[in-house]
Please model this.
Amino acid sequence: MLANPVSKSSALPISSHLRSFLRLGICFALAANSVASSSVPDVLTLSKRVDRHYNALHTLQSEFVEKYRGNGIDRTESGTLWIKRPGRMRWEYGEPRAKLFITDGKTAWFYAPGDQQARSTPSRKLDDLRSPLAYLLGRAKLERVFEGLALAEDVPPLSAGNFVLRGKPRGLAGHLAQVLLEVTPEGRIDRIVAEGQDDSVTEYRFLASKEDEAIPDERFRFVPPAGVQVVTGGFDQ
Model:
């Protein structure tokens, strides 16, 4: 006995289910894309997160790695950074050579142990890439510091989930072409890349940060060792 052929009416429900599943799949795909897009904050939202994060801090300690490329030099250094309100900062380099960059908010010093000279300059006249970080805590306002602040979507972050901001620093515009800031979703700065007008690149990576731990004021004071001459001037290294 021949089996009954499948009628057109009995095939319709199967086709209808397939169309329903296809429509449902498209809806899920659109929803997923929408969620992915909404997870990327706009530049204003992200910059305000950075502002809020650092304005709430009183002290910051971090290990750092500094890389410099340009003018025939390729150099990597590392050490520890301390920052404390208001405007105090200490960069203590350990590798490959010990040296110290420090400011108490009024005077900035640079000294390498064993040198016969220590250099100093008023903090307000300091023309150095590290100097703006001294005023990060309690006074952060990225939109005022950087002109044309925007998301650098063409620059991948080193850490998954982070974002990269691009802008031109107003105070150092004569020396720097642009600065890249890699920030976490919470607003912490993990990396700074400064591109000079001379095509040099200086990169700072901040690791193992500690926030609002007690730091004595003495850490930001510098007394030249006996016999060391104090020279007032720039801090070219």
